[in-house]
Amino acid sequence: MTKELKQQFTLKITQANKTQLIVILYEMLLAYLDEAESAHENNDRPGFRDGIRKAEGCLKELMASLHFEYEPALNLLQLYLYANRELVRADIRNSKEELSHVRKIIKKLHEAYEIVSRQDHSDPVMANTQAVYAGLTYGKGSLTENLADQGSSRGFRA
After folding, report:
1. What is the pTM of this model?
2. What average pLDDT does this structure show over 92-105?
3. In sequence order, which ranges of 15-139 are alpha helices (DSSP H)?
């Protein structure tokens, strides 16, 4: 994952509510699948395995976020477990075919959660984070992000 993409995900995470965090996890998982497929096409076995390992990490985080007091949680768990088995198969077989199975599932879940996240107007999970303002500056086609309140207590509450 590129440094810029990591920064984008970090910024999204700092300003996301619970539902948006799930959407971000799906986006990260899809990015790691892209990374694994790209490595496979370049015959980069360590890169392929690393992409799969990071995608598995996202799946584990999704499984840990399930609330089993709600009915859909068991169905989601079954989908996540299937996706995890497919990632393991892809790694063992050194095949990217299984990654496409995982991608189909995750894309559909991502789309569904994206719709739900638009209806969730709860506060961000993280409090006391820096406010980031992005906008075009006088430079031709450049984007500048300005950080507000760069105090030393950022992220901490006394």
Report:
1. 0.77
2. 95
3. 18-41, 45-64, 72-93, 97-119
